[in-house]
Amino acid sequence: MCKVIRQTSDVPKTPDFNKTVLRKSPFVVIEARDHGVGIPEEDLLYIFEPFYRVEKSRSQIIKGYGLGLNLCKTIMEAHKGKIDIKSSPSEGTTVTLWFPEQQEASNRDGKRFRKTKS
Fold first, then answer.
1. Using CA atoms, how far apart are residues 9 and 24, in angstroms rounded to an integer?
2. What is the mean pLDDT of residues 55-70?
3. What is the reported pLDDT for 113?
4. Residues linked to residue 24 through DSSP beta bridges, in sequence order
5. Please, are residues 87 and 23 in contact by the beta-carbon 8 Å criterion?
6. pTM for this one?
7. Given the DSSP bridges, would you call strands 92-100 and 82-88 parallel, antiparallel or unpaired?
8. How far is CA 116 from CA 25, 84, 102, 109, in A?
9. What's the distance, CA 64 to chain centroid?
10. How far apart are CA 101 and CA 27, in angstroms?
11. How far apart are CA 64 and CA 53, in angstroms?
12. pLDDT for 64-109, tens place per residue?
């Protein structure tokens, strides 16, 4: 989520940013939406690839290596969640993070148990 907020706030002339948190059982969903420049449709297929950068011309404005979204996806999948990005040029981008309400975990002995929500 920090990556989404940081990348969104670095884009020049981003007029608005909204966050929403809601429960869509069996997930807790965080949705972040900006109303900035958006991502071209042809780039959406590749944004989770390591080192992929949208608009190479903006590389001087927004620093980075193109690893952030790949790391976000890896972390979400490791926690049995998922990340989804929808975007339209000139309309903005919506990033949705799906966190499972329950997860299996192991104790020190390697025995499986289920964490429950509080």
1. 27
2. 71
3. 56
4. 27
5. no
6. 0.68
7. antiparallel
8. 13, 25, 5, 19
9. 16
10. 5
11. 9
12. 778 889 999 999 999 999 999 999 988 899 999 999 997 555 555 6
Handedness of CA 57, 58, 63, 69 (dihedral sign): negative
Please report which helix (H) or strand (E) contains residue 9, including its range.
Answer: helix 2-10
Can you spell out the DSSP letters for 35-80? -SS---HHHHTTTTSTT--S-GGGGGTS---S-HHHHHHHHHHHTT
Q: Is the peptide bond before 26 cis (omega within 30 degrees of 0)?
A: yes
- The domains located in the chain, with CATH, are 2-101 (3.30.565.10)
Say how many residues make up the chain.
118
Q: How far is CA 21 from CA 8, 24, 25, 49, 88, in A?
A: 18, 10, 13, 27, 22
